Structure formats: structure tokens, C-alpha cells
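Annex B.
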Amino acid sequence: MQNNKVQSSDADVTFQSSDNVDFRLHKRYLEFATGGFPPANTPSSLGEIVRLSESSTTLDILFQFVYPQRHPSLDKLGFEELLKVAEAAEKYEVFGALTATHLMLRCVSKFLHSHSKQVLQFACVHRVAPLVERLAPIMMDTPLSKIKSALILCPSYFVEWVSTLDH
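BTB domain-containing protein: predicted C-alpha cells.
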């Protein structure tokens, strides 16, 4: 179900999801709430549609973080949905969504335990140190051979990880 704010009739930019759902947004809000979209005064063709690779479900949640309103609750999202929103937040630098998804990944115990390798991969790819720190004690018994592909993405995390395991 799409939020009315991301379907504004007076919007000046249209994004289309991978499943062909259009999202009409205001450039001025994108400019202030993100780092991954051009400034509001950037010229664009009338009626231009910007195609994005994410699904409408992911974009609907993500774009709600762009507007000056109460942000959506992520509590009911499953791990895969949350990770998709987190990846999109990183890609488009949607600041509110970055904070919310990082917090959910760091604080929801069931995700940390049941999807620890995926969370570690995300944390290393996007350089989210608090997530790596949170995972270290949880994954203490995981052989380094099983997680080195994630840790190698950021050597400084690898050093910290090994130091944590020594204590």
C-alpha cells in the first residue's frame, strides 16, 4: 500500500520501480533528506521518469523517509525486506532510513542471530562499524574461514574483529 506523500499530484520528479510502479516526489524534499539525488534546481525533462532497480515495496518504505513526517515503523518487516530497504538507503543515501535500518539491524536480536553472516556482509560492505562491533561477540565461535569474505572487504574491521576474539 503506497503512502499518499509519495504519490503527490504536484510532484516534480517521477521514479519508477522495477515492477513498474510510479512514485511522484518533490525534488526539494529529496535534496534535503538524501545525498544520492540531484539538487532541486537541477533541470529535468518534463514528464521524465527515472527508473530504479528496487521493487515498489522497497521504494514505498524508503521514500517515506524523504518527507517531513513521522517515519514508517520497520518493526513488522522481515529480515529480507529490511535488508532491501537498508541497501536502498545506502545506495541513495536516504539519511533517515540509514539510521533506522542500521538501528534495526543492530538491535533486533533475532536478525543478529539468525542472519549474522548476512548482517556482517552488509556491515562490511557499507562500513557500518557499530554493526560489526555488535556481531563480534555473537559470532565468536564462527570460524574465520566462514566470514573472511565479509571481513576482507574492510581490513580495519578484520583487525578489530580478531582483537575482540582475543579478549
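The two ends are 48 Å apart (CA to CA). The longest strand covers residues 13-16. Further annotation is deferred to the next reporting cycle.
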